[in-house]
Amino acid sequence: MRTFILLAMLSLIVSPAFAQKYISWEAENFNDSNGAKFEVFDVPTDHPGNAAESVDDYTVTEASGGKYIGSHNGATNDGGDWVKYEFTVEADDWHFWGRVIAPSVGDNSCYWVFDVADGDVTSTNDGPMNIWDFFEVESLRVNYTTDWVWFRLNTRDGPFEGTELVQHGDDPVPVELDDGDHTLYIAHREDGTYIDKIFATTDVEFNPNETDPQTAVEAQNKLTTTWGSLKSGF
Asked: For residue 225, is it within any domain?
């Protein structure tokens, strides 16, 4: 009987549904920041639209953890302000996603970079910095919305090898991370862009717009706990 249970648990462990690794964190839970462009908002929050882009005023009524970050329209773009997130992973190819509101072509991007010094983070499209676009490619602009959408990490023309259009295809480009500690910086680029949550997975096929990432993380953690408890009983 014990042998049967052990084999059944091993079958679950290697199941594709649970074999991948996941990390996630709330956007407002940054480890450090520079400047005041990134505000932390509580829901519900009223935001001015963008008349030039035919976006009416709107209200954000929901966010993971009840909070999110960004800057109201009119706060002005760029400025060198940033937030950073420190995390630890196993060496692998990681696919990062952000839960974002990006209502128009004037409110749909930020800068990003991994593992540099604070002083090297700038609001510029050069050196180590990348632009993370949200429906920037013209064929995708019909999808602009004031609702939350998960966007895969991409770059416009920086050192990361994966444009927004590529990242919407069948062979998205991962971030290759070594074993150990890392830092993700998000730098301000456009006001009117809001970020609720960051999620990363080693599963290239996982799409948080189709499956709630929290469900995947909870399922994995629950299985790990159960497996550890069963092993200690043998």
From this structure: no
Q: How far apart are CA 131 and CA 185, in angstroms?
A: 12
Element spanning 60, H or E: strand 58-60
**Tell me, what CATH number does 209's domain have?**
2.60.120.260
What domain range includes position 186? 21-220
- Residue 73 CA, chain-centre distance (Å), reads 22
Q: Could you tell me the pTM of the whole model?
A: 0.84
- Assign 192 to helix, strand or coil: coil
Contacts by 214-223, CB closer than 8 A, 24 or more apart: 214/24, 214/64, 216/22, 217/22, 217/24, 219/17, 219/18, 220/18, 220/20, 220/21, 220/22, 223/12, 223/13, 223/18
Walk along the chain (234 residues) in steps of 10 and give the mean pLDDT of each run.
38 41 95 96 96 94 97 87 96 97 96 96 91 95 97 90 89 95 97 97 95 64 30 27
